[in-house]
Amino acid sequence: MEYSLPQFLEIKPKIAGPFTFHQLVWIGGPFLIILIMIASGVKLSKIILIGIPLMIFAVYFAFGKIKGFPVPTILARAFSYLFRVKIFVWRQQTTPPPTLPKRVAKKEEKPPTPEATLKLAEGSRLKRLVNIIEIHR
């Protein structure tokens, strides 16, 4: 038996005409502010000067998206990032600065004693190699 799976789960219900609840709040809020300004007797030039930018921002916040996310969500995430406590997982350990070791005066090297040198037989192959190396130096 096959079951049909619901698709398009991200569709939000429409509350008033083509508007969802959030869109209605973003559009309705500035609209009410403009109506209150008209009812209180503010000059038409001030209403236009304040109302048009207010409605532009309201429409942008209601319908605008940045990389698939609504603008209010982006702003909320930006403010939460700016004002929350940052957690640093790795901290550098404080260690004293490295110091160079003190130089020790070199002792005079004595030439090797005949007993300490390698004894080679007269006709050995090793003696011939030593002679060849010394000649090429």
Characterization of the model:
The chain has 137 residues and is an all-alpha fold. It has a domain at 21-83. The chain contains four helices and two strands; from the N terminus they run ααββαα. The chain has helices at residues 21-39, 44-63, 71-83, 125-136, and strands at 65-66, 69-70. It has a two-stranded antiparallel ribbon with strand order 1-2. Helix 1 (21-39) packs antiparallel against helix 2. The protein is elongated, with a radius of gyration of 43 Å. The mean pLDDT is 84.
Outline of the structure:
The protein has 137 residues and is mainly alpha-helical.
Helix- and strand-based class?
A: mainly alpha
Principal-axes shape call: elongated
Low-confidence stretches: none
Helix content: 40-55%
Rounded radius of gyration (Å):
43 Å
Number of strands: 2
Q: What is the CA–CA distance across the termini?
A: 92 Å
Strand line-up in the sheet with most strands: 1-2
Task: Please supply descriptive tags for the structure shown above.
single chain, 137 residues, mainly alpha, two-stranded antiparallel sheet, elongated
Topology record:
Blueprint: H1 21-39, H2 44-63, E1 65-66, E2 69-70, H3 71-83, H4 125-136
Antiparallel strand pairs: 1-2
Helix pairs in contact: 1-2
